[in-house]
Specification:
The protein is about 60% helix and about 0% strand. The chain is an all-alpha fold. The chain has one domain. Helix 2 (about 20-40) packs antiparallel against helix 3 (about 55-80). It starts with a helix and ends in a 6-residue tail after the last helix.
Length: about 80
């Protein structure tokens, strides 16, 4: 009888709730989108300068999305899943 209670008490419990994981995946997707927007823009010929590396998308938008994604990750960790 005591062994049965110990097995029930030893059930695995997730650290975070479903709500936390949902926000974590949203944050990861936004971070990945930021890195994808930041990628590229290289030149095949090293002697030719490509001014596309200084575009608004790579200098402002992509880092902003990455920081927003990290903010969402912090929110997801601190979110109380039991609170409605």
């Amino acid at each position: 009888m005591g062994e049965k209670k110990r097995k029930e008490a030893a059930k695995p419990v997730f650290v975070f709730g479903k709500k936390n994981y949902k926000f974590m995946f949203i944050g990861l997707a936004i971070i990945a989108l930021g890195f994808i927007l930041m990628a590229g823009g290289g030149s095949d010929n090293p002697n030719v300068f490509n001014p596309e590396i200084f575009s608004w998308r790579r200098i402002r938008l992509a880092p902003t999305l990455i920081l927003i994604g990290f903010g969402i990750q912090i929110y997801a960790i601190l979110l109380n899943p039991d609170k409605e």
